[in-house]
Amino acid sequence: MNDRLRSHMHGMSLTLHCPYLKWDHFPVPCRPKVGQPVSQHIAKPRTTAVILAGGTGQRVGLSIPKQLLKIAGKAVIEHTLTTFEKADSIDDVIVLMAPGYVPDVEKIVAKAGFTKVKKIIEGGSTRNETTERAISALREGLAEGEDLNVLFHDAVRPLLSQRVIDDCVAALERYQAVDVAIPSADTIIVTRTHGEDGEFITEIPDRSRLRRGQTPQAFKLSTIRRAYDVAAGDPNFQATDDCSVVLKYLPDVPIHVVAGDEYNMKVTQPVDVFIADKLFQLASTAAPEQNGEDDYRALLTGKTLVIFGGSYGIGKDIAELAESYGAKVYALGRSTTGTHVENPEEVDDALSKAYAETGRIDYVVNTAGVLRIGKLAETDNATIEEALKVNYLAPVQIARSSYKYLAETKGQLLLYTSSSYTRGRAEYSLYSSTKAAMVNLTQALSDEWAGDGIRVNCINPERTATPMRTKAFGQEPAGSLLSSEAVARTSLDVLLSELTGHVIDVRQQDPTAGAAQASGFEQALATVLDRQDGV
User: d(Cα 334, Cα 117) in Å, to the nearest integer?
Assistant: First the structure.
């Protein structure tokens, strides 16, 4: 043992604190002193996310593992893998799956095109055994003395935010073990049983010091490996999470706590399935960053854009913007080109003409819509038929007819909804219900067409100054409405992005402004709660 290690360990009562610890469990060179940045000792290591998916689904009453249950149109584990695939701080991913279900995950990974997933292996019969298999897999191919950052995350926590991931990785620059936790809003009690009558309270801990543990749990690979090596000497070893292993068997390693968030829930009970599904339904995506003028020209020159509903309002503004950047635009509308979106033949003809003249169709946009206000019981059949044809059947027909062209260019279909899609409103039954349908259509087609490289998204603008709105509501106070030009600009940014399957909010003001730490789902819920009753 070198003098530096002896000095570092001087005064530690190893036998008293941890009877299973042996000298050879300490890595060479020795770990940095407590609180001393790890980055001073080694180069920045790679970071691997380990997705723990060994659950069976018995507590939810399922015949398949709960991580394969579909929520918001995708398996729970696919939502989780998507989060890590998008995380800039994660280099690669390993999945530990319930025995017998590895092929199911392989299919999900192949279909979604996840590039960071490097291994999918069977987990063990217990959480500890699964972690040990992960550690063994992580050690393969490592050079002597090489270390890794590793994040262990429950597959059935699909609502994890990028902020939590980044905070965990950043914390590993200073600490060797990191947990994620949130304060407890509930009072916690300690009880004891008294026969068959029930339980007595024996203690009520101070809630201010209590936290609810979440995942990821992050470690230096050398640290979590060492903890499990020591634990192997304990004949009574068992643990429900990995931080508890470090806490018990490496008591001198501090475990830093990163703030989690309330939305990082674990799908464990049947009610959790419904809550998670609703959160995904309400979640919206922030608009992508705007491109520079030169970027717009480079991305749009030579591209073909077909807009249904391009006579006025948002559609007209998109057409003018795209044309100014070099795109060939076909702006179609009833009042300008005589195109009726509710007529499938006219939709087919318009697309066929655009393709014949340019040899490609890169983007198809549908902004056409009608807004009819009134009580359903007092609405005539002609009005009902018009609303359903224009607001629902037309987008379906446009999507179906566009498919072959967009598959050829790996292009995008862009639809439009309204803030009324989250909750139907009196006298807006036809409009609200068809706008809710646009969100579901977007989500379904983005999944259905993912293998063809077609992106499908949906714009959800705040109340916007358009001729359709003026016709329905008359003149409204200046500054109370979003401009159609702003919606058009965001629409163009979405078309040029890699997003798919998203509902993108366009708003005058951000209801979560100032809440820098808010997760995507916190922002989405704040947006929903902040939406005004107008359409």
Answer: 49
Exposed/middle/buried for 383, CB within 10 Å: 0-12, 13-18, 19+? Answer: middle
Sign of the CA dihedral running 525, 529, 531, 533? positive
pLDDT single digits (tens) 10-66: 444 343 344 444 434 444 334 444 444 544 444 689 999 999 998 765 555 567 899
Pick from 316, 306, 396: which is nearest to 351 by CA? 306
CB atoms within 10 A of CB 122: 15
**What residue type is 7 in one-letter code?**
S
CATH top class, domain 34-282: alpha beta
Q: What is the mean pLDDT of residues 127-141?
A: 92
Peptide bond into 205 cis (omega under 30): no
CATH 3.40.50.720 in the chain, residue ranges:
293-530
- If 0-12 CB within 10 Å is exposed, 13-18 middle and 19+ buried, where does residue 236 land? exposed
Strand segments (E) across 40-175: 47-53, 70-71, 74-75, 92-97, 117-122, 149-154
Q: CA 296, CA 202: separation in Å to the nearest integer?
A: 67
Both structure tokens of 96? 């530990």
Q: Where in the chain is the domain with CATH 3.90.550.10?
A: 34-282
CA 455 – CA 413 distance, rounded (Å): 6
pTM of the model: 0.68
Q: What is the mean pLDDT of residues 461-473?
A: 59
